[in-house]
Amino acid sequence: DTAVSQTPKYLVTQMGNDKSIKCEQNLGHDTMYWYKQDSKKFLKIMFSYNNKELIINETVPNRFSPKSPDKAHLNLHINSLELGDSAVYFCASSQVDPYEQYFGPGTRLTVT
Amino acid sequence: GENVEQHPSTLSVQEGDSAVIKCTYSDSASNYFPWYKQELGKGPQLIIDIRSNVGEKKDQRIAVTLNKTAKHFSLHITETQPEDSAVYFCAATAYGQNFVFGPGTRLSVLP
């Protein structure tokens, strides 16, 4: 009965490849997020979706494209992977109000 | 936009002592301030939060205080235990739209 799940947990790939990370939440939340955590542990929001609509799109390269097929899923597709994309990516979800946010276990992406 | 600072970046305390982590924010529109605990290899876990209309909130050994005028909020952990060792993040958001996180505090509780 995992609240927010992500697959895969680890992803190792070469520069130039395209990869996807999947996220699902079973909390009935309306809002979902993608965060990037770099090697210094700094957490930065990338995208926010509310009921399948894009709400926040921070200064993220357009090689990153989120897709929300329904409000329980928010997937992240990355084209032409670069070394600097190596990080841990977290999915999260919350209600509109209250704002309590729940995170998934993370996907460690390593680009070689 | 919002900017959140957090201090200290590392904190070591003896088991049983108290630990205090402080954060400041810049956007007066922010109205929700959560604290997260991140253990190694796991996602951040919400441990306590506070809204802008409240000055203090307590949950067993942890408490959060908020000073809206000064735009700062703090996490207080009393009677620390080794299992409290983790990285702690503060965050701020206006109405849950864009969560801005502090850089984190690595807390070590020494037995």
> How does the overall form of chain B come out from the CA principal axes?
globular
The poorly predicted ranges of chain A are none
Order of helices and strands of chain B: EEEEEEEEEEE
Average of per-residue pLDDT values of chain B: 95
Task: Specify the number of helices of chain B.
Answer: 0
Task: Give me the secondary-structure category of chain B.
Answer: mainly beta
Major sheet summary line of chain A: 7 strands, mixed
Extended strand count of chain A: 11
Order of helices and strands of chain A: EEEEEEEEEEE
Number of helices of chain A: 0
Please indicate the percent range of residues of chain A in DSSP E strands (runs of 2 or more). over 45%
Mean pLDDT across all amino acids of chain A: 92
Low-confidence runs of chain B: none
Structural class of chain A: mainly beta
Strand content of chain B: over 45%
Please estimate the helix content of chain B: under 10%
- Determine Rg of chain B (CA atoms, Å): 13 Å
Protein topology:
The complex is a heterodimer of chains A (112) and B (111).
Chain A: E1 4-7, E2 10-13, E3 19-25, E4 31-37, E5 43-50, E6 53-57, E7 64-70, E8 73-78, E9 87-94, E10 101-103, E11 107-111
Parallel strand pairs in A: 2-11
Antiparallel strand pairs in A: 1-3, 3-8, 4-5, 4-9, 5-6, 7-8, 9-10, 9-11
Chain B: E1 4-7, E2 10-14, E3 19-25, E4 32-38, E5 45-51, E6 56-59, E7 62-67, E8 72-77, E9 86-92, E10 100-101, E11 105-110
Parallel strand pairs in B: 2-11
Antiparallel strand pairs in B: 1-3, 3-8, 4-5, 4-9, 6-7, 7-8, 9-10, 9-11
What does this structure look like?
The complex is a heterodimer of chains A (112) and B (111). Chain A has strands at 4-7, 10-13, 19-25, 31-37, 43-50, 53-57, 64-70, 73-78, 87-94, 101-103, 107-111. In chain A, strands 2, 4, 5, 6, 9, 10 and 11 form a 7-stranded mixed beta sheet that branches. Chain A has 112 residues and is mostly beta strands. Helices cover 0% and strands 57% of the residues of chain A. Chain A has no helices and 11 strands. Chain B is mainly beta and 111 residues long. Helices cover 0% and strands 55% of the residues of chain B. Chain B contains no helices and 11 strands. In chain B, the strands form 2 sheets. In chain B, strands 2, 4, 5, 9, 10 and 11 form a 6-stranded mixed beta sheet that branches. Chain B is globular, with a radius of gyration of 13 Å. Chain B starts with a strand and ends with a strand. The relative contact order of chain B is 0.35. The mean pLDDT of chain B is 95. The interface between A and B is medium-sized, with 26 and 23 residues.
